[in-house]
Amino acid sequence: MANSLDDVIDAALRVLDKRGMEFFSMRRIAAELDVQPSALYHHVDNKQTLLTLMASRIVAPVVIDEDLTTVSHRLRAAMLGIRDGAEVVATATAFKLGSSTLEAEIARFSTPDIARTLLIYIIGHTQATQLHTQASALGLISQDSDLDASFERGLRIILGTTGANPNK
Amino acid sequence: MANSLDDVIDAALRVLDKRGMEFFSMRRIAAELDVQPSALYHHVDNKQTLLTLMASRIVAPVVIDEDLTTVSHRLRAAMLGIRDGAEVVATATAFKLGSSTLEAEIARFSTPDIARTLLIYIIGHTQATQLHTQASALGLISQDSDLDASFERGLRIILGTTGANPNK
DNA sequence: ACCTGAACACCGTTCAAGT
DNA sequence: ACCTGAACACCGTTCAAGT
């Protein structure tokens, strides 16, 4: 009974979360919707476009305000919330330098340079975290339990804040 | 007459530079070597392994010394030197947080946190630059001629250096 | 050690046609 | 507007066999 574009994005995010980027394909999304692969192209121009829509959806719930440390943690959490979420955001959204609304919104509370540097760091570190977590889940590398703390320390290098956090 | 692993890596880098990531395939590398696709698997376990070897090759000539600003520019230049070079390095090398030799070498001249943050930034910004350059070459977005300066300003945010450069 | 030939189980995308 | 069915031009990888 007639899927909408939103149904397609939902199904795509479900496939991603269940199988990961490695097995993320248009054909699996079609199967998830009980539809022929060609049907997807009525809603979306191509796979890349779909990935961009997914990235927007992942990032959309993140509230941007003046507390950039908290904003950074929110963004990280949003991407970590879905398997390979950071990779999707990395390849689709954030790397449209300048034309990203996220970058502009963060710049409102700091400077364009800080916004850009911060965004690159957040996405990059989170992507690394996700890859690392997967690899150690497969027993390929030893666990590095320090990743949350590592993220926080990098944040302080960029934002120039000290250890004392008045909001906590 | 019998290819070596090095021949395979060479051919792979040639294919990447000529066609880009989008058309980078084992089958094209095989064609570049005038060999059957299956022959590649005598030299390399799989495509991912080959990408890791390519990333090492891209980054290998970069000299690491105490002038981290210059080191950063060298790394950026090395990745920009080959089409989609930053993407290959991003997915293959750098994101082995901690287990990257590059990260350890940079840490010798600063701190582990600065090394990690810097590396994430350099690779991320360079990847963004390369995507941006390609997109604007295709007329998809407007030119942003500021990317070199943008890179430099982000560098200063992380390294905490001021405008004055005693080495220049 | 290095490679061929053939096969397997997949891809993204297009397009005419149906409802 | 939304979907089917069939096709096209590809993929990565395995494996027996050749030299």
From TrEMBL, chains A, B:
Protein name: Transcriptional regulator, TetR family protein
GO molecular function: DNA binding
Keywords: DNA-binding
Domain annotation HTH tetR-type: ranges: 2-62
Gene3D superfamilies with a match to the protein in the record: Homeodomain-like (1.10.10.60), Tetracycline Repressor, domain 2 (1.10.357.10)
Residue ranges flagged as DNA-binding region: 25-44
Secretion signal, residue range per the UniProt entry: none
One Pfam match: TetR_N
Lineage per the UniProt record: Bacteria, Bacillati, Actinomycetota, Actinomycetes, Mycobacteriales
